[in-house]
From TrEMBL:
<dbReference type="InterPro" id="IPR050337">
    <property type="entry name" value="L-rhamnose_isomerase"/>
</dbReference>
<keyword id="KW-0464">Manganese</keyword>
<dbReference type="InterPro" id="IPR036237">
    <property type="entry name" value="Xyl_isomerase-like_sf"/>
</dbReference>
<dbReference type="InterPro" id="IPR013457">
    <property type="entry name" value="Rhamnose_iso-rel"/>
</dbReference>
<keyword id="KW-0413">Isomerase</keyword>
<keyword id="KW-0479">Metal-binding</keyword>
<dbReference type="GO" id="GO:0016853">
    <property type="term" value="F:isomerase activity"/>
</dbReference>
<protein>
    <submittedName>
        <fullName>L-rhamnose isomerase</fullName>
    </submittedName>
</protein>
Length: 390
């Protein structure tokens, strides 16, 4: 690789920003058990303290996504200032209309207008919070759906969804975006109201330019070609964000790149090919993960590293040679070019990038040596640990 090409790869890696989710630092679990861990944050402020450690060691994770009400505070401007003092900014505001009894039959698609109103009020509250936090993105995921055929009218639910989305879209400022996430199933098991990218895309298209799709990598049927979805949405200017995580079975929320690093590479290659790594492309590379059994801060660090390594490999693909092989119909040659990049050990390259950013060549070793885990375990005693719903 020429000096110039290497410099371009490094520059792309330097400018990539990976957004970490506040809830990854909190306790989480399955419906069977939540295993509490020592030192887990008791409030959003402490989640930001942990996120700052991730950024200090990796150099590329200065943005933290919030989830409301899990991160509810009295003064969001103060939270943003607190983040700023730690070299962070606040990222997407994730709305939560799935954890209250009223939402048993849905939120914005509920048959009862009073429940729909309540859900919409929450979405509007999130927009107000974005004003105070300086967030660009409102991220919406709806658990809405039905469990049994005939339970509710599928078309009417789409009408209600459209009504709520357009009301909230109207409320956004000119620089703010609505990001609509889809998920095949769970908690609804028969018909989810936004089950796939096509549904999300169709709603976003109607809403307007600032409505974009979020691809959560854990939200598809097994075997789905996610990189095709990414390529398609990017081509249409409708890819807004990722919720990165990995899965073996359903929405496992395991560390990004852990279950299938090759899939993450294929996704990142399509992002690169579609111009999604350009600084003005507006693609948010968020993690959406839960660390149920592994220590949380190093798990987030590992995930950030995995995303960076997949990105580096994607950047190493020799695009000219690939295009030539594709034009020539050289099936094996083209595939080989992609595989060569995937098989490259990019760890030294990414370590160089980190060093240039003033972070650590080996973030996990640096974190272990920092004493942070011992410190938070000793200091964060008393009070209630944060978790899903706290
Ligand atoms: C739903 C989801 C969505 C939520 C998050 C906690 O499964 O992916 O993004 O906000 O989990
Ligand atoms: Mn998600
Ligand atoms: Mn999910």
């Amino acid at each position: 690789m020429s000096e110039q090409a290497l410099a371009a790869v490094k520059s792309a890696l330097t400018s990539q920003r990976i957004e970490t989710p506040s809830w990854a630092y909190a306790n989480s679990g399955t419906r069977f058990k939540v295993f509490a861990q020592p030192g887990v944050p008791r409030a959003p402020w402490e989640k930001l303290d942990d996120a700052a450690r991730v950024h200090a060691h990796t150099g590329v994770a200065p943005v933290v996504a919030l989830h409301i009400p899990w991160d509810r505070v009295d003064d969001y401007a103060a939270l943003a200032a607190y983040a700023g003092e730690r070299g962070l900014t606040l990222g997407a505001v994730n709305a939560n209309v799935f954890q209250e009894d009223d939402y048993k039959l849905g939120s914005v698609t509920h048959p009862d207008p009073a429940v729909r109103r309540k859900a919409l009020d929450h979405l509007m509250e999130c927009v107000a919070i974005m004003g105070a936090t300086g967030s660009r993105d409102l991220k919406l995921w709806f658990s809405d759906g039905t469990n049994y055929p005939g339970q509710d009218d599928i078309r009417a639910r789409q009408d209600r969804l459209e009504e709520a989305l357009s009301a909230v879209y109207e409320r956004l400022g000119d620089d703010q975006r609505l990001i609509l996430e889809y998920k095949l199933f769970e908690p609804a098991f028969y018909a989810t109201d936004v089950p796939d990218w096509g549904t999300s895309y169709a709603h976003c298209l109607k809403l307007g330019e600032r409505a974009k799709v979020c691809v959560d990598t854990g939200h598809h049927a097994p075997g789905t070609n996610i990189e095709f979805i990414v390529a398609f949405l990017l081509r249409e200017g409708k890819l807004g964000a990722f919720d990165l995580n990995s899965r073996f079975y359903a929405d496992d929320d395991l560390m990004a790149g852990a279950a299938d690093p090759f899939q993450l590479f294929r996704i990142m290659y399509e992002v690169r090919a579609g111009g999604g790594l350009e600084p003005d492309a507006g693609i948010a590379f968020m993690l959406d993960q839960c660390h149920n059994i592994e220590p949380k801060v190093p798990a987030v660090i590992r995930s950030v590293m995995n995303v960076q390594e997949a990105t580096a490999k994607a950047l190493l693909v020799d695009r000219e040679a690939l295009a030539a092989a594709q034009r020539a119909g050289d099936v094996l040659g083209a595939n080989g070019i992609l595989m060569d990049a995937f098989q490259t050990d990019v760890r030294p390259l990414v370590a160089d990038v980190r060093e240039e950013l003033g972070a650590d060549r080996d973030p996990l070793a640096a974190y272990a040596a920092s004493g942070w885990a011992e410190r938070i375990a000793a200091e964060r005693v008393g009070g209630e640990q944060a978790g899903w719903g706290a």
